[in-house]
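Researcher: Here's the sequence for the chain we discussed earlier.
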Amino acid sequence: MIFNSSLKQATGFLGVLSLICFSSCNNGTEPVTEADSNNIDVEKVKAKPEAKEEFVYYMLPSALQIAHIFRKSGLKYYPNVINDPNNVSKYVSETSKLQNIGVFSADLCYAALNQQTQEELNCLKAMMDLSGEMGFSSVFTGAFVDRFEKNIAHEDSMISILTELQKRLDYYLQDAEMNDQSIIIFSGAWVESIYLSLAGYRAEGDVSGLSVRIQEQLYILKGLISKLNDVWEPDEQVKALTSDLEALLTIVEDLSFITNVDPKEQVSVSEVAISDEEIKLILKTVDKIRATVVNG
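Model: Thanks. This is the structure I predict for it:
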């Protein structure tokens, strides 16, 4: 794949985080407010826009921000759902390596916010291995890794460290004018994040907060597709993922709980319903997309 180094600097995968407050999980009945929506740095849009309306997205959120959104909506920790670090050896193409740096970044945030220390270490190593193969291992200095390992049991410290990691990667990619690569990395992070958001339903049929997580990701998905469509001379993997995400967007936009809710009103999670048929359709589509990404 040929990457365009002259594109405007993207604020894709790893936007700089500022003043993000990480609160504990709620009980699944908290209203979806404007303040919650602002936790993701995207421009607010209408749920059912006119056909010719153009969306402008100034920033895609980081994997850590997405994990925080899921946590606030009640997502619990489920073991054995993250990508297997042993899969690193399967990623041969440039695109698959970039996508799975994003996948492991989402897994790392999920593990860190649930204090799963061994999984944190495994995900960090996978990110380091893939980043080394892509030529930007300098992001992971010895001092950074030492601090990561020493503070791994302390959630507040880990949040600070992950924020720093995201900044370091973001600055590196921008300085190297690797804008397309940044978007491809984020695409992997987003796919893994939405996959993790469905973990509760897979494990125990738990739908608490699920409709809110899906609605939040609808806004991000539109921006991601727009960014992927701007990638310079995308390879077949990027084209295939973009097509799959466009198909997922069509499914999500037609969900009854989205089409029947006035986007201007605050809506309590307890008042929003998503049917089993709709969940299963999303689950099937997301699982297929995710399998394609993590299988390289």
